[in-house]
């Protein structure tokens, strides 16, 4: 494989803007890109090559090397890496026939994650390099309110769906559902529309993959939430779509991270303006826990 050129200057700025990266992070990344030494250049090229080699390939998870902590390069380097990959992933989308609008919405998760980093730590950066490998290898697509990831069934969901009479083996293709932030409420109507769009999308662009079920693994599926939220809550309605596979696992971090962007703030100082905020903070303050759970629902193929 030929080396991937690392963009700099206006080229880098335009690519990061296309990926909806906030302007303060673009400015900081430009300054890092201008000062890359040979080792750092090689670090980014090697990471970018690994992701590019995975484009359109298998469904293995990536574990990209961590950049040096506590440095500007550590905080911003992977933005340059993903900017370098933009033309390649756009080519892959074209090869798969993915409409431009869907490709752009999907890749804009890079900017969303960079925004969350800035909000959380008060300085420009990005630390979700492994998560973005899904988008940049053609495994994940945003279709309206939800994101859908081509993946394979784990033993727990295969057993649970099997017990419900579906033919699902461990390793069979399934679609993992993810819930991005900043796209409005998780309303049943928005989710229905997104699921309908995904049914058509995967049937059209990945006709050889038959997905018997959709799967979600999230803190939003913690059954304990129903005791604290209004019965008209969107999260509660979302939960009702899923059959849980296996018991929920203790996971305080996800509930805290996705509800508050203040990882170091003491529990008694967290805002309690919504039912969700009050529930998450009060349960933890009382010594309780939140959980992540895995659930599935049957995937209807168009025409079936
Ligand atoms: C998923 C999400 C869009 C749901 O929001 P929603 O549609 O408003 O959900 P609900 O209708 O169930 O909200 C119930 C209550 O919690 C509040 N709430 C929901 N999400 C909240 C959040 N992230 N932070 C603070 N309060 C929140 C609502 O304002 C509402 O408050 P009220 O009952 O006092 O009026 C939202 O929680 C979110 O953006 N989460 C981050 C993304 C995420 O967690 N993804 C999954 C990763 S595994």
What would a concise description of this structure say?
With 304 residues, this protein is of the alpha+beta class.
Provide structural commentary.
The protein is α+β, with helices and mostly antiparallel strands and 304 residues long. It has helices spanning 9-18, 23-34, 38-53, 72-96, 100-107, 109-121, 129-136, 155-163, 188-205, 234-239, 252-259, 275-285; strands at residues 140-143, 146-152, 173-178, 213-218, 243-244, 249-250, 291-298. It has two domains: 9-138, no CATH class; 142-298, Aminopeptidase, CATH 3.40.630. Strands 1, 2, 3, 4, 5, 6 and 7 form a seven-stranded mixed beta sheet that branches. The chain starts with 8 loop residues before the first helix and ends in a 6-residue tail after the last strand. The model has no long low-confidence stretch (mean pLDDT 95). Coenzyme A is lined by residues 179, 181, 185-186, 218-220, 229-230, 233-235, 254, 258-259, 274-277. Residues 179, 181, 185-186, 218-220, 229-230, 233-235, 254, 258-259, 274-277 line the site of coenzyme A (COA).
């Amino acid at each position: 494989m030929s080396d991937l050129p690392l963009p700099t200057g206006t080229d880098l700025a335009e690519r990061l803007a296309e990926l909806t990266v906030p302007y303060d992070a673009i400015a900081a990344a430009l300054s890092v890109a201008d000062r890359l030494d040979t080792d750092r250049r090689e670090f980014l090229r090697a990471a970018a090559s690994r992701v590019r080699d995975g484009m359109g390939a298998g469904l293995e998870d990536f574990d990209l090397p961590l950049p040096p902590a506590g440095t500007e390069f550590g905080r911003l380097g992977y933005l340059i890496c993903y900017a370098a990959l933009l033309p390649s992933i756009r080519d892959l989308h074209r090869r798969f026939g993915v409409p431009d609008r869907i490709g752009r919405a999907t890749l804009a998760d890079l900017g969303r994650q960079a925004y969350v980093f800035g909000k959380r730590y008060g300085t420009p950066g990005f630390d979700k390099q492994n998560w973005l490998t899904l988008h940049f290898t053609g495994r994940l697509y945003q279709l309206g309110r939800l994101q859908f990831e081509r993946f394979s069934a784990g033993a727990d969901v295969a057993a649970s769906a099997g017990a419900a009479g579906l033919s699902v083996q461990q390793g069979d293709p399934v679609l993992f559902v993810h819930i991005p932030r900043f796209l409005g409420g998780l309303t049943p109507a928005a989710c229905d529309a997104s699921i309908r769009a995904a049914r058509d999308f995967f049937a059209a662009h990945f006709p050889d993959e038959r997905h018997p079920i959709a799967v979600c693994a999230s803190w939003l599926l913690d059954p304990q939430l129903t005791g604290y939220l209004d019965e008209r809550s969107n999260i509660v309605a979302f939960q009702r779509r899923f059959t849980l596979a296996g018991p929920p696992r203790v996971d305080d971090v996800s509930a805290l991270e996705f509800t508050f962007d203040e990882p170091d703030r003491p529990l008694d100082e967290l805002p309690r303006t919504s039912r969700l905020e009050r529930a998450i903070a009060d349960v933890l303050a009382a010594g309780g826990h939140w959980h992540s759970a895995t659930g599935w629902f049957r995937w209807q193929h168009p025409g079936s």
